[in-house]
Amino acid sequence: MARKIVITSGKGGVGKTTLCCNLGVQLARRGYRVIVCDLDFGLNNADVVLGVENRALYDISDAVEGRCRPRQALVAHPRYPTLFSLTSNRVLERYVSAQAVRLVLEALSPQFDFVLIDSPAGIEDGFHRAAACAEEALLVTTPHISALRDADRVAGILKSYRFYSVGLVVNFARRERRRGGLLLSEEIAATLRLPLAGIVPEEEKVFSENIVERSRAFRLIADRILAAGIPMKGGA
Ligand SMILES: Nc1ncnc2c1ncn2[C@@H]1O[C@H](COP(=O)(O)OP(=O)(O)OP(=O)(O)O)[C@@H](O)[C@H]1O
Ligand SMILES: [Mg+2]
Question: Residue ranges of the domains in the chain?
Fold first, then answer.
């Protein structure tokens, strides 16, 4: 059965989709069978980041409503044979319940190792739907104090879900210490009382390429997820 990991954040634009897709690539490169499931119905873009946009004949709403089998809603990645994209449909959002999405993912689960669920930012319905479909969570934040307050709010709510594990990923990290109001990743983890699953530095390349196959940071996060089953303490 697939491990289902939701990727969440308090603030928008902190790198959830980037992490979700790059983690998917890193796991697929090791031969694991991975679904990147986009449950950010309002602003779905994981297919674009993966470079498989316009390839989907069906999306998750079609699978939920029986217009296709769950497997038919998956788009195989042309470059990574064990990586699949499951897109959402912004038009039909109001019809899709967490329970219905869970059933689709349950049907796919035996044939896969990981389902990585891209969640919308914040704590609205879309977040709860994504969280309700997972057993593990990664919370993404940036080192800015403004992002931390939102992350703290989400961290509190994640606790009520009784996930098997919750790990923290600090994105847009800078190497310099304490400059311009940026916090150290270890301080952030201590404040949020979450184990650090990874630190992703701010990179020019991510802007231009979306998928950075050789990224050490994403590789290390994949290693941690694989090694422990749950994220372990320690930085990149
Ligand atoms: N480590 C990084 N270095 C440089 N650019 C990054 C990094 N991580 C993400 N980005 C860029 O930041 C932007 C936002 O990232 P992304 O879309 O992954 O955030 P998000 O949390 O999914 O946003 P949303 O809340 O809107 O869904 C993108 O243009 C992405 O390429
Ligand atoms: Mg996103």
Answer: 3-228
pLDDT tens for 70-118 read 999 999 999 999 999 999 976 655 678 999 999 999 999 999 999 999 9
Which long-range contacts does 153-162 make (Cβ < 8 Å, 24+ apart)?
153/10, 153/123, 154/8, 154/9, 154/10, 154/122, 154/123, 154/127, 155/192, 155/193, 155/194, 157/123, 157/131, 158/8, 158/131, 161/131, 161/132, 161/137
Neighbouring residues of the ion ligand 2, judged by CB less than 5 Å: 16-17
Please give the CATH topology (third level) of the domain spanning 3-228: Rossmann fold (3.40.50)
Report whether residue 78 contacts ligand 1, using a CB cutoff of 6 Å: no
Q: Model pTM? A: 0.94
**Residue owning the nearest CA to atom 2 of ligand 1:** 202
Residue 12 Cβ contacting ligand 1 at under 6 Å: yes
> Taking 80 as the threshold, does the pLDDT of residue 218 lie above it?
yes
Closest residue (by CA) to atom 31 of ligand 1? 207
Return the pLDDT at 145.
87
